[in-house]
Amino acid sequence: MPEIVLEAKNLKKVYNYGTENAFEALHDINFQVYEGEFIGIMGPSGSGKSTFINNISTIDMPTSGTVMINGTSVKTMSANQIGHFRYENLGFIFQDFNLLDTHTMFENIAMPLSLAHVEKSVIRSRVEELAEHMQISHLLNKFPNECSGGQRQRAAICRALVNNPRIIVADEPTGNLDSVNSAELMKIFQDLNENSGVTIVMVSHDPLITSYSSRLIYIKDGNIESILEKGDLSQDEYFKMIVDINSAESREILQQ
Ligand code: ADP
């Protein structure tokens, strides 16, 4: 049985807790991510997908309940331990890439290693190796605003991978990509997941993108409403099930 790498127990998130604007975005979530899984997360806009992914990956802290990472409760970890854990285990990819425009592509990719004071020659060879793999070697001295969206996204992927993370957390990673670059990113994720055993947790509104996952959770109004397993299904069969879940939801909204 694979190990549980991330776990939410009775996870509740209330924004503006204790004020008259308090809003409960996640109600009582229980979920486990096993090592080597590729989890897709879907649900209507505003249902709590980003809140969920942020809370299980130390970007944000739950209002109540517990998040366990590799068996340790995040609550019991110091800020230093959390930072260390992130550096050792997590790679983040977001829709808007979050590259710093004042730094070159090289410096952006190198950032997690520079912050961890890794030796310069080690940083250089790791960044160059990844950049070559992502076909952006020729752009390393350029600034992000001199590069295309697809090229910036590749740099963001390099930055997420530079520390050899065991877990990739991605929130709408193809949101700013065209279909060719999106498919390419999914091939990269699939390769990392199947051949390097990297665990992936990814939010996307696109059934084609989430059909690359091995398990899909559908979040609605702050609850996990359903869970699909790819199991032995072909990607095409799995894709159709994912489309069905989403269109049932759309029909429900239309009938209201
Ligand atoms: P999704 O990712 O599914 O679109 P989010 O997790 O971003 O949904 O948001 C869930 C709900 O929580 C939404 O109603 C949103 O308006 C609210 N929310 C998100 N972030 C904040 C915040 N920082 N402060 C107050 N409310 C928030």
Please, could you describe this protein's structure?
The chain has 256 residues and is of the alpha/beta class. The protein has a single domain, classed as Rossmann fold, CATH 3.40.50.300. It is 39% helix and 25% strand. Strands 6-7-8-3-9-10 form a 6-stranded mixed sheet, sandwiched between helices. The protein has a 4-stranded antiparallel sheet with strand order 2-1-4-5, with helices on one face. Helix 3 crosses helix 4 and helix 3 runs parallel beside helix 5. The mean pLDDT is 92. Adenosine-5'-diphosphate binds next to strand 2 and helix 1.
Task: Sum up the structure in keywords.
256 residues, 25% strand, 39% helix, 10 strands, binds adenosine-5'-diphosphate, Rossmann fold
